[in-house]
Backbone:
């Protein structure tokens, strides 16, 4: 860095690398939380500087290759402003930038939806669900779709599939509609306003081969201790009742009526595997490992769900 850059004064347009150093220093000193798609101040700073420079966040892992990229004075100022806003408001960076990245895809987000970060995305993108699918799914449901991220990912992976995406929040569905349009999926992705299964037909013609669900699962006690960043997200996207399993319970009870015989449920419960096992002690769940978590997501088979929930 030049002495001017080191001192923090922007008298000449800095490089992307110098801006990154300043952001990291400021954010580290402010002790922010990084649970919204980035694991550290370094990762999040890379996303910010790339975004402002007009480079894709998919380059974040290799941001150093762009370290000498020159920034305009306006870009440098914008980075400073967002850096300060992130500290002052503790909003997730995704809300400040109006975008989130998941499995290499960009999604429009704002405080009407939770910031996309589901572990299911990695499993979808890497084909990790294939061993449980007898053939490419023709009908997919993404229950609790939020921004529509998982539904869109599924629709892009299985190009022949009809995908339904349900959510109780009209605000979330409005954001999902923007993302659906951005990926030109209006013909194959149906957005459904529904309190879990309430608005979904349960006849044989409407069953699903694959049901994805990343429901709210944070137990009430944990809701009280969440870092400030999470308080900017819709509470209904996080709060899962006393044991975290309130929505999961209703979801699993209703699932058998909406699954094909060979159907598969992929359910995310984050850090709540113990709560899940204590709520459903005899339900066989196959836990799938992802890069950052060994037991946040499980696969449940239609036959096992029927045995557990259908008298
Ligand atoms: C953890 S977020 C998941 C969003 C998205 N699938 C993702 O992975 O980013 C949970 C979503 O469930 C929705 N939700 C909460 N209660 C619901 C209910 N009773 N029926 C349907 N959706 C509900 C929330 O609005 C929120 O969008």
Residues:
């Amino acid at each position: 860095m030049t002495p001017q850059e080191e001192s923090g004064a922007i008298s000449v347009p800095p490089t992307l690398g110098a801006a990154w150093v300043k952001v990291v220093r400021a954010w580290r000193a402010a002790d922010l939380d990084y649970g919204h798609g980035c694991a550290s101040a370094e990762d999040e700073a890379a996303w910010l500087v790339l975004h402002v420079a007009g480079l894709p966040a998919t380059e974040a892992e290799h941001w150093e290759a762009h370290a000498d990229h020159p920034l305009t004075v306006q870009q440098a100022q914008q980075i400073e402003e967002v850096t300060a806003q992130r500290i002052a408001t503790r909003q997730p960076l995704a809300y400040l930038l109006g975008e989130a990245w998941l499995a290499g895809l960009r999604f429009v987000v704002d405080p009407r939806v939770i910031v996309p970060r589901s572990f299911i995305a990695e499993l979808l993108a890497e084909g990790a669900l294939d061993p449980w699918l007898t053939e490419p799914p023709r009908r997919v449901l993404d229950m609790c779709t939020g921004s529509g991220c998982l539904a869109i990912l599924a629709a892009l992976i299985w190009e022949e599939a009809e995908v339904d995406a349900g959510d109780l929040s009209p605000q979330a569905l409005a954001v999902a509609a923007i993302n659906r349009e951005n990926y030109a999926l209006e013909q194959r992705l149906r957005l459904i306003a529904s309190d879990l299964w309430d608005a979904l037909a349960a006849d044989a013609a409407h069953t699903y081969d694959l049901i994805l669900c990343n429901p709210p699962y944070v137990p009430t006690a944990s809701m009280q201790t969440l870092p400030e960043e999470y308080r900017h997200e819709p509470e209904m996207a996080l709060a899962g009742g006393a044991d975290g399993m309130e929505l999961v319970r209703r979801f699993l009870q209703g699932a058998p009526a909406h699954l094909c015989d060979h159907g598969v449920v992929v359910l995310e419960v984050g850090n709540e595997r113990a709560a899940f096992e204590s709520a459903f002690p005899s339900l066989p769940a196959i836990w799938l490992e992802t890069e950052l978590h060994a037991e946040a997501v499980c696969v449940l088979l239609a036959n096992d769900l029927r045995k557990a929930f259908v008298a």
Q: What stands out?
A: The radius of gyration is 21 Å.
